[in-house]
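Give me the fold.
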Amino acid sequence: MTAIAAHKLQIIRTLVQTAPDAALRSLELALSGVGEVGGLAQVRGLVEVETTERFVRNNVLAPIVPLCGPRKDGLIHFPPVVLARLWKALKTVAPRAVEDAASRCNPWDLEQGAPEVFDQLCAMAVTGLRDPSQTAFDSLRDLSECEQLARCLEISSIVRTTLPKLSDWVSKMSGERAAAARLAYRDACAIRDDAGPMLFDMMAAQLPDEWRILRIISAVMDRPNDRYMASSEAASFGESVLTDIETSIAMIRDFDLERGEKIGREAGHIAQRVALQIIELEQSVNLAKDGPWGKRVAKFKQAIAQAADIRMAAADRELAEALPTRPISILGGKGGKGVALLDNPPDERRVRRATAALTFIAELRPCADKSGYGTTRIKALEKLNTRLDQYIEDVLYAARTGEGGDPAIARQYLDIAANLIAYTRDDKTAEIVRRRAAAAIAA
């Protein structure tokens, strides 16, 4: 491929510079195998330069980087373009400091902690955002969030000191770690009286599960009761978790089985998260039975158990429709057990619904006992496995002998039954069914 014309290369450079991080990583991977000459090599060079630039930028601005991505309503959030504009402004007003920061963005320097120049650049950004004479920051001052951005950058040095410690703080809080968290809180409030909630918000953004910030808040506030915390400056964090739980329960209650395995797995994971969030609230806040949050948590426990129970109770019906049977008569017309109905091919819609229902039940395993529906789950699985075991034996017989239905259709149902029993038991059982099916067909 020939070299790209200068004006076209500029267009590509602009596209690369404005591409989201995920898209940039995909480009870098896609172009990793191109040669050293030609147009693609030029594009790869642009991508490599931008990747290096963003690595430096994201290290320097680490305390605010997660604030420039998707976040729930009510939390601090800036448009993604803020990072690029802020970095461009800093390169204009402090090119040497930016070069110094870039030279220190290497593993051996970063392992010793963030270089001082990182905080210096953030301090320069605060000044630039508030100083109209610094025109390099004009595009940021046009944003409605400009002052909030400046406030976040004001305490960014405090946030930066907490970053290496956050995983330890939320995994297992100790007396020493609680003292460190309280010190960070005091330091932030020494910069701004109202910086406490902002510090919690910025730390929460750095966590994989933002609601785990409750553990740090609890350490700083010495495990407050719910009445106190609900009326404090940290109330929004607890309210956010409670709202999330309520929304999650509604999703579990209402999710559409037509969407198949994916939605069943998603709903199960949401149920796991609800269990963890309730535990986090109970451990982080002293909930009173008649307290503003204690009453809501008690209602949520009942609601999630009820929603899960209803879903599990309906699973047997969904399975019966996906694996249809026909009644048989014995002893002069009295009804006996149904046997597999193998006259028509499987109904994809019914199979999809059954798969969603059984996937959901399978994903409840880590949280069922602690959430109050462990016994219901055990009983539901027993009922489902009884149906599956009998059905599989019937269909194996039909596949082997040709009696009771079309052998080709029987093989289709065997494959479906094997897939479903993987959810109610395990993959090993499913593989045994598949091997028995293969043997029956071969015979």
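The mean pLDDT is 90.
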